[in-house]
Amino acid sequence: MIRQTSQPRPNWQKTVESQGMHYHTAGGVPYWDESACYRFTRSEIDALEAATYTLDQMCLAAVQHVLDHDLWDRFLIPAAYRDFVRRSWDEDEHTIYGRFDLAFDGQSPPKLLEYNADTPTALLESAVIQWFWLKDCFPGAQQFNSIHERLLEIFRTLRGETGERFYFAALAGCLEDYMTANYLRDVAIQAGFDTEYLDVEQIGWHASRRVFTDRRENPIRLCFKLYPWEWMQRDAFGPHLPAGGCRWFEPPWKALLSNKAILPVLWELYPASPYLLETSLEPPAGGDYVKKPILGREGANIQIFEHGKLFLETPGPYDGPAVYQAIRPLPRFDGKYFPVVGSWIVNGWACGIGIREDENLITGNLSRFVPHVFE
Amino acid sequence: MNRLTRHIGLVLISSSLGLLGCSPPEEPEGRDGNDWKGIGEADPQDPNAQGWTGGSTSHPGYSGGYYHGGRYYGGWGAGGSGPGSPGGGNSGFAHSPGGSARGGFGGAAHAGGS
Q: Which residues of chain A have pLDDT under 70?
């Protein structure tokens, strides 16, 4: 695994815009950064693929463990939603996608930092933008990337189960979220669905009909929401979720996996796994750990402690219970770049990666997306 | 190995994204929750009538501070029924002519302002 500089394509901004990516630059600084790429060997890609499959299986077992042992309180799942979550699991409701964030240096096994199981973004970049970049810049090289094909498979499976109109919803005002939802909507259209986008805020609740509704009062029976379960549960319409008659994606049981409280459960179940970092609900002895709020997002409110003293932290609004994860410093490339490998699991398939890098040890929403190749 | 081949013509993605109108969304005026149109009333030239909604032309997640979805996240427990009481009552919501209450999702993200 090496980082190498790469010549950006002339007028690359227009190129990626033509492929749907309009959030390529922020404050004059590229978010999509093709001035460099990461180059992997085939065996390194094999290692990432194997780790992703194993982590996925461990996570599914961890969900069953949580349900079997009623560990709801650890996850801050309100009592009113526990049967809702359990039912979705017992009925094997399909998942579409998730992204494991891994620390990987190409040498030792990938280590799970966290699992974005509910509302992962950087999907269009991973599935589409970096693929076209590869074809333009390194046409003879390979890329670990069949994300789009796997997405199409799961939407075709779903289309075989239902002909309901498929709604796609995201928070108003965020272009990245909007494009992520509309990319998935695009795939759903290709799979044969009738679709519609609406903002999360536009979802209605019809009290007498007991259904969620679109802007024309049609019932919403099938909906992908790029909006976290823990927020839905605490929003005003949350109490309508269990009996609202809508099939949501990601399914309700993903609320357990997107919650960082799953990390100590994984460690309890699989302490010998090469892919896990020791994680607990209390600060470990020795004082070296990373503190992460269990309902935190996008690298906010992360604190790194060394010998019990705060070494580095990121700002943010999250408080409440946290987990304490062993420190695994990210590998450093070219003296200053710290990459995190986001490994995608779609419908149970490990099918691609996307890399975010930063000059900071903590990857946040300012971190750049850098494409990759392998040979 | 699944990663080695891509059978799909990916040009379909960009063309279908184009059909979906996936370019920087523009914030329509008057989207205050009271501008809902009934069935048959929507202007076919109105992008909102075809599922085209909100957004801004810059990347709101990169203008500093912590955001999700372009909004400061004000912490959980701040649903539309008031902080700490996601009770689910309908009072205080915008209602569309068809009778549905609106705005009952998105409250947590709205709580911190945008």
A: 364
Q: Inter-chain contact A235–B14, Cβ cutoff 8 Å?
A: no
Tokens coding A18:
């033509």
CB B17 within 8 A of CB A182: yes
In DSSP terms, A39 is beta-bridged to: A2, A373
Pick from B36, B53, B63: which is nearest to A197 by CB? B53
Pull the structure tokens for residue A303: 């604190």
Which tokens sit at A124?
Answer: 């269009």
Q: Which amino acid is at B73?
A: Y
| Chain B residues closer than 8 Å to A131 by CB | 6, 10
Task: Let me know if A279 is exposed, middle or buried by CB neighbors in 10 A (0-12, 13-18, 19+).
Answer: buried
- Judged by CB atoms closer than 8 Å, whether chains meet at B86 and A238 is answered as yes
List the one residue out of B72, B74, B81, B70 whose CA is nearest residue B105. B81
Which DSSP string do the residues of A320-359 spell out, in sequence order?
S-EEEE---PPP-BTTTBEEEEEEEEETTEEEEEEEEEES
Check if the beta carbon of residue A104 is closer than 8 Å to that of residue A277.
no
Is residue A311 within 8 A of residue A304, CB to CB? The reply is yes
Q: Element (H or E) spanning A115, and its range?
A: strand A111-116
φ, ψ (nearest 5 deg) of residue A199: -65, 150
Write down the pTM of the prediction: 0.83
- pLDDT for B6 equals 52
ipTM over 0.85: no
- H or E stretch covering A155: helix A147-161
What is d(CA B58, CA B56) in angstroms, rounded to the nearest whole number?
6
Contact A324, A287 (CB under 8 A): no
Helix and strand tally (H, E) in chain B? Answer: 2, 4
